[in-house]
C-alpha cells in the first residue's frame, strides 16, 4: 500500500505540471480583442506615438508599456508616460475609446504627454477596477469628468497639471466623495480659487496618506483643528497658494507626517513649539512665506529630519542652539532671512550633509576648515551675502568634492583660495565681491574650461588680460564684470585668425555673458553671432568701438537683455533688431549712435526697458512706439536731437514708470491727458527688471544712481525742450510720481493747484519757464518733497509756508521771480504788499483821471453839437466862420506857392 501510494504522488505531480503547461501554452499570448484595442488606440494618435518597435510583435503582453496578468493574460497595466512625440501643436491626439476592451485594467499612466485641445475622456470613468490613474502633465482642456466618481476602487489619483492652465474650468470636487478607497491624491495645478471651504470631503480625512494641492490658487484654509481630522496622512503639500493666514494649527496634530511642504503659500506668524510633535518628519519646507521670530527649540525633536528649507522668510535668532542636534540632515536651506550670530562649529557633526545654504542673512564671524572638516558628503556650499569671513588654511585639503560653490561677499581676497584647485566636480562657482586683486591663476581657467557651467567673478579687482577659454563647450553663464580686465573680446578664445582655417569659439551653450565695467577695447566681433542660445549680453562701461554687428539681430533670436551702454559705439541701430522678438531690455545710452529709430523695433513687443539717451538720434518719435511697445516701463530718449511734437500715442503706455524726453528739440504742448500713464497714477511698485541694469535719474538737482532693479522711483522728465502752453491739471492724477522735471521750456500760465495731489512727489523742477501767478498753497502739503526749483519765471506773491517747504531754505530755488516774497527770499512780504498797495492806488487814481478826461471831452463835444443843432443863428455863424478861415488859409497857401515859383 505504501509503495502504491508513493507511486501515485509522482503521477499526480506530472499531471499537474502537464495541465499547467497546457494552460500556459494556450494563454501565452495576450487576448486578441485587447490587442486589437491597443492597435486601434495607437491609430487614433495620428502618428504622434513614439516609435516603439515592440508594438510590431504578435504578443501585446511583450509590448513596451503594456503589462498583462501572468495567468489570465488580460492587460492590467498601461504605462504610456512620455509616449507622444512632439507634434508642435499641429496634431490633436485623441484617446480612442477602444481601450474600454481592457476590462481588467487597474493601472493607467498617461502622464507627461501633451493632448492638444482635447478634454479628458469621460470613458476613463468606466474602468471600474482601476486602482492607479496618472494624468499628470498632460495638459488636457476643460474640467474633470463627473464620471470619475465611478472609480470607487481608485487608490492613487495624480492630476498634477493634468489640465492646461489657460484652457481649464474646474467646477466643484464633489465627485471625490465617492472615492472612498483613495489613499494618494495630487490635484496640483487645478485652479480652484473660488473654493472658500476646505476642498476635501471629510470621509477622506481618515484614509488619505498623501494630499498634494500645490499651485491650486487656493485662498482659504481652516486654521483650527476642529474641521480637519487627518489621521493617516504621511505627505502633505499645500505649497504655492495664497492663504495669507497663520500656519494651520491642525498640521501639528498629524504625527504620521513624513513630508510637509507649506512653502510659497503666504503664511505669516511664527513657527510654534508644537512642531516638535512631528517626530516622523523627514522633509520640511516652510520657505518663501512671511514667517518671523526665532526657530523654536522644539525643532530638535525632529531627529529623522533629512531636508529642512526655511529660506525666504524673516526668521531671526542664531543657529547655535538647535542646528547641530539634527544629525540626520542632508539638506539645510536657511537663506534670505535675518539670522545673526556666528556659524557654530557644531555644524560639522552633520556628517550626512550634502547641501548647506546660509546666504543672505546677517551672520558674522569666520568660517574655517574646522566647520567643514567632517562633511565628507558635502556638494553644495552657499555662504554668500553675510558678514562672514571665509578663511581656510592655504594647505588645507578638503574632505569633500563640491558641485556648487557660492561664496560671494565672504572676504576671501586678495587671492583665490588654493583648495579650489583640488575640486574636480565644480559645476557653478561664485566668488564675486571678494576683493580679489590678483590675476586669474591658470588652474582656474583650466577648471572653468572643462567642468564649469557657471563662473561668476564680478565685483573684484582682478587684473590682466581676459582669460582664454580653449574649450568652454559646457559654459552657460560667464560674469566677469566690474574688474580690471584688459584686451579685446577676441582674447576669450584661442582663435588662430592667421591660419587658413579659423577655430571658431565652442560656446554652443552660452546663455549669459557679462563683461561690463572693465577696460576692454576693440570692436564687437562677428563670432558673437554664433552664440545662438544667448539671452543676456552685457558689455557696458568699456571702451568698445565700431558698429553693432548686423548679424546680431539675425542670429540671437532668444536675446532678452542687451546692454552696450557707456562705450564709444556709433552707427545706426540695425534694422535686424526687429527679429529679436523676446527682447525685454535694450540699453544703448552714452554712445555715439545716430539716425532715426528703425520701424522694425515695433516688432519687439516684449520691451519693458528702453534707454537710448545721450546719443545723436534724430527725427520724430514715431507713433508706433506707443501703439506697439505697450509693455514699456522705462523709456529714455534724453540728450538726443529728436524734434517735433510729443505724440499722443505715448499715452497708451499704461505701464510706464519712467519717461525721459529731456534735452531734445521737442515743440508743441504737453500731452493733456497725462493721467493716462496708469502706472504713474498708482503707488504700487511692480517692476520686473533683470539685474545688471544701471539707471541714472536727473532729480533733486543732481544725478541719482539706482543700481540693478529700478523699482525705487517713478519719473517724468520733459526738461530742456521748446514746449509751450500750460501745464495740464490732469498731471495731478499721477499720484505715484516721485520726480517731475519740466524746466527749461516755454511753459506759461499758472502752476496747477492739482500738483498738490501728487503726495509722493520728492523732486519738482519748473525753473526757466514763463509761469505766472502765485505758488499754489497745495505744494505746502507735499510731505515727501525734498527738492523744489521754481526759479526764473514770472511768479508773484507770498511763498506758501508748510512743514516740508520750511526745510527747503535755499533762496536760489526762487530767484528770477522779483515779485515773490516771504521766506526764504530776502524781501519781506510787508514791504512788497505796501509797494503793491501804493501801485494799486496810483493805478486806481490814473484810471479815474483818465475816465474824467474822457467823460469831459465827450460832454464838451455833445454840448457843442447840441448848441449847433438847436441854435440856427449859431450854426450859420459857425459854418460861415469855417468857410472864412478856409478861404484865408487857401489864399495864403496860393500866395506862398506863387512866391516860391517866382524865385525859381
Automatic annotation (TrEMBL):
The chain crosses the membrane at residues 846-870. It is a single-pass type I membrane protein. It is found in: Cell membrane. Keywords: Cell membrane, Glycoprotein, Leucine-rich repeat, Membrane, Receptor, Repeat, Signal, Transmembrane, Transmembrane helix. Residues 1-28 form the signal peptide. Residues 32-68 form the Leucine-rich repeat-containing N-terminal plant-type domain. Residues 223-432 form the Disease resistance R13L4/SHOC-2-like LRR domain. Its main location: membrane. GO terms for cellular component: plasma membrane. It comes from the Eukaryota. Belongs to the RLP family. This is Leucine-rich repeat-containing N-terminal plant-type domain-containing protein.
